[in-house]
User: Fold this.
Amino acid sequence: MAKKEKETELNETPVEETVEEVVEETPEVPEVNPWEEKYNAEHDSHLRLAAEFDNFRKRTVKEKEQSYGNGKADAVAKMLPVYDNLERALNQPTEDAAYKKGVELTMNELVKILNGLGVEIFGEKGDTFDPNLHNAVMHIDDESLEENTISQVFQKGFKIGEKIVRFAMVQVAN
Assistant:
């Protein structure tokens, strides 16, 4: 009996009401012009292509700038042994004033060229130790110096902008 009651309930619902409800709930779809749709697709494709080209242009400019900076850093790195040898020659005692003057002039000219290339020389005695710039190869305890102070410089450091060409090799106190 329960099956018959359910069947009668289902049969009592008029079919017309359910169709009208479905029709009322369906939103109206506007007519789409095929030419307008094709135009929008082509326009979108054109905008994407223009954006891709712009990104490619920006990327190649950035790569070009980086390659120039890397080349300059490599060239400076190859000249650093000359700087080191001139610095050692200046630190050696000599009685020949003309020789010492010639080495000083050569060193000054090299420093001038390096500065013209945008190279910054760092790592002086008395500076504060920075592990991002300095390579500590020795450590001493010296009460006359503050903590993390450079007490001796073995090799100067060089950087171009934010790029480190060579870390300064130093001795750190305390």
Residues 40-173 form a domain with the Nucleotide Exchange Factor Grpe; Chain A, domain 2 fold (CATH 2.30.22.10).
